[in-house]
């Protein structure tokens, strides 16, 4: 097996037995980035020098016999909406462009404390708004499986660099599917934890009641390891929950006895691609063979989730993005006429079309006379969707279904029709509205060779159960093993 | 069908959001936002008269901590990214005539 093919845990074993040094691992990964990333464009910025310096440090500490963290010497990548004191934090937006964060996000501190090596910042849809990474202000990322197709979004860069083995794992953020959807399109594992599980301190805010940081990895065990590293109560985020973080690795390989999986009948309606439907049904057969009970359930208000989401998220975004005003950081136009012009013209130049669209939508639905009809209505529908999930979990341990209605689409295919692009989120937004954890795991490929993902959802704060259920599938199948053939 | 949000209203919202739009953007947003608003109208099929709104999945009440001075950014660090600064402050165009 080649070095880059290893999972985080396999690499950790090699590093621990000193068959390879962290310096060698980082050097080899940087070479791969130099060779393959010009086509994929998963990275916005690579911190080569800092990564090599840290690798040397960790190698030295290892040779001295120092106690090292659980990710010692492992190169990982960070989505560019998480603040790092190293390099820039741009959210793939021209309005932040050269912003250098004065502090590290909680998750960055946690990775550093675990002795991981941060390789660089990954591409994304501007401010995490999008499902294809085409909304990046610095050019799109391409899907390593087929460079004519999108990698998904908004954490498209993170998914692509893990799939292309240009990092051993990555962090993404998920507001309406932004970890799970690119994970499905790129055939990697993507986990959105329960809202409140991971501190959002230092995560640039998009939809504050929906945003959550999570891992993208080659397999479920690595996702468990990364989640264990970043999940922790943090006083600096008042929504970070002060609950014990279980050892997700401890029982990971123990199958759940008497597992009950609920499959919402509504998920298999019109709009779902036949090949995706077939792959999901086959995945459910795998669980049935492993002794699980597959039960048809109903999420009656599922069809309203997307509409509720596209009111709640833009409303929160319009408020969060008011801070980009050209005063304290970021872009300001030259020679503004007056202070209103400084705001309006700086924001006109700095934001891309999708961000403007969502700020406009959110501002409209929050404005006097429309608040009750749109925003408040959406919040009430959110309650109903949450109730649908609460009710489902009274009878089943887990809700299963597709991650996306289709496999990856072509670059440019949907860019002119925002509403059709929003439809790509139809299966993922429910988990954010309800605040429940959800995971995307590889479950096959289309005839055209494009990856398909299976989505699993469990009750709040039961990531241990969710990961074990995901691991049951992974240990019975090989769908997570193939890697794309890359073009240099 | 008449647009749900016409050009005049788009201009008004753009002013509230402090985003200068070109005339072609005004037209495009009028069309696209109207499409989205038509789509979300399906929420009216649901009776929500007795439903409490969910602003937050955790239903947390206020989270308090002690009011103690902690570490803060230095003036220099806070100003490091400022597009324009003057004498330890952010500098902006004149607000009062």
From the structure above, extract its key features.
heterodimer; A: 488 residues; alpha/beta; Amidase signature (AS) enzymes; eleven-stranded mixed sheet; 15 helices; 11 strands; B: 97 residues; mainly alpha; Histone, subunit A; two-stranded antiparallel sheet; 3 helices
3D structure, described in words:
The complex is a heterodimer of chains A (488) and B (97). With 488 residues, chain A is an alpha/beta fold. Chain A has a domain at 3-258 and 439-476: Amidase signature (AS) enzymes (Alpha-Beta Complex), CATH 3.90.1300. Helices cover 38% and strands 12% of the residues of chain A. Chain A has 15 helices and 11 strands. Chain A has helices spanning 8-16, 22-40, 48-63, 106-113, 156-163, 180-186, 220-230, 274-289, 305-320, 339-350, 353-366, 371-395, 418-422, 429-434, 463-476; strands at 43-46, 75-79, 117-122, 169-174, 189-192, 212-217, 260-264, 293-297, 398-402, 438-445, 451-457. In chain A, helix 4 links the parallel strand 2 and strand 3. Chain A is globular. The two termini of chain A are 20 Å apart. Chain B has 97 residues and is mainly alpha-helical. Chain B has 3 helices and 2 strands; from the N terminus they run αααββ. Chain B has helices at 7-16, 23-40, 75-79; strands at 85-86, 89-90. In chain B, helix 1 packs across helix 2 (23-40). Chain B is flat. The model of chain B has no long low-confidence stretch (mean pLDDT 92). Classes of the chains: A alpha/beta (488), B mainly alpha (97). Chains A and B meet through helix 9, helix 10, helix 11, helix 12 and helix 13 of A and helix 1 and helix 2 of B.
Got a strand count of chain B?
Answer: 2
Oligomer: heterodimer
pLDDT < 50 stretches of chain B: none
Radius of gyration of chain B: 22 Å
Task: Give the ordered list of helices and strands of chain A.
Answer: HHEHEHEHEHEEHEHEHHHHEHHEEH
Contiguous runs where pLDDT drops below 50 for at least 5 residues of chain A: none
Give the biggest sheet of chain A. Answer: 11 strands, mixed
The overall average pLDDT of chain A, rounded, is: 97
The CATH class name of the domain at 3-258 and 439-476 in chain A reads Alpha Beta
CATH superfamily of the domain at 3-258 and 439-476 in chain A: Amidase signature (AS) domain
- CATH fold node name of the domain at 3-258 and 439-476 in chain A: Amidase signature (AS) enzymes
Major β-sheet strand ordering of chain B: 1-2
Residue share in helix of chain B = 25-40%
CATH architecture of the domain at 3-258 and 439-476 in chain A: Alpha-Beta Complex
Mean pLDDT rating of chain B: 92
Query: How many helical elements of chain B?
Result: 3
How many runs of DSSP E, i.e. beta strands of chain A?
Answer: 11
The CA-CA distance between the termini of chain B, in Å, is 46 Å
Q: What share of the residues of chain A does DSSP label as strand, in percent?
A: 5-15%
